[in-house]
Amino acid sequence: MSKLPKENQFLDLSDYGRPAAVVIAKVLQNTSFTPIHVTIGFIISGILAILCMYHQYFMATGFFLILKSILDAADGELARIKNKPSYTGRYLDSVSDIILNFFFLLTIWHITDSSLAYTLLAFAGIQLQGTLYNYYYVILRNQNNGDTTSRIFEDKVPVALKGEKQRNVNILFAMYKFCYGIFDNIIYRMDREAPEGDILPKWFMTAVSTFGLGFQLLIISVMLALDLSHYIIPFFIGYSLFIILFIGIRRFINK
Description:
single chain; mainly alpha; Four Helix Bundle (Hemerythrin (Met), subunit A); 10 helices; 68% helix; CDP-OH_PTrfase_TM_dom; transmembrane helix; CDP-OH_P_trans; CDP-alcohol phosphatidyltransferase family protein
C-alpha cells in the first residue's frame, strides 16, 4: 500500500526496496509478527552491515545495507496492511535510522582513516538531505490525503493511536526530537513557505528522492563495492550543496 494515492505517486529512487517490502508484508500479514518486529529486523541488518564494513567485507556490507532498506520499507507496509499505524513504530524507525547512520559513517571513518571533523560534517549533510526529502514528501502526503503518521511539524507529542501506550509514544518522541530537532529546524528555516506552496511536480520529487535514505545507502554500497570507500565522506559533503539547489527550484516552481 502506497503512502500516496495512485494519481499522486512518483518514481521514488530511494524506495527501490518497496516491491520486496510488499512481498514481505503480505507474507507476514496473517502471522503474529508486528511492524516493530520488522523494525528490529532492519536494526539487526544494519548492525551486521557495520560489522562487515569494519572487517572490510564490502560485498556483504552492501547486501545488509540493501536488506536494511527493504526491511525499513516493510515495517510501514505491514502496518498499513494490518491497519495498525502507530507513532511508536514511526519514531522507533526514525531514531534507529539516525543512530545506524552515525555508526555507518563512524565505521567508514575508521576504515579509511579520514578526518573525524569531515565525518561529522558528512553525517550532518546526510541528515539534512534526508530531512529535506522527508519534509517535501510529508507535505505532499498531507496535500493529497496520503499517510499521515508522519507530520509536517513534529512540535508536540501526538496522542497515542489504538493499540499503543502513550508512555512509549512520549519516550520515543523525546528521543526523536533530541536526534532530529536541529535538522528539522534548519530545513524549516531554509524553506518555511513550502507547506503553503502548490503541489510539487512528480519530476521534482523524483529528483529530491536521491536524498532519501535508501538511495544514500545504495550509494554507499556501490562505492564500497568499487573500492571507493575513501570518497564516501567527501561525496556526501559535496552532495549536500544540492540542498540549496532543490530549495531554489522549489521556490521557483511555487513562486
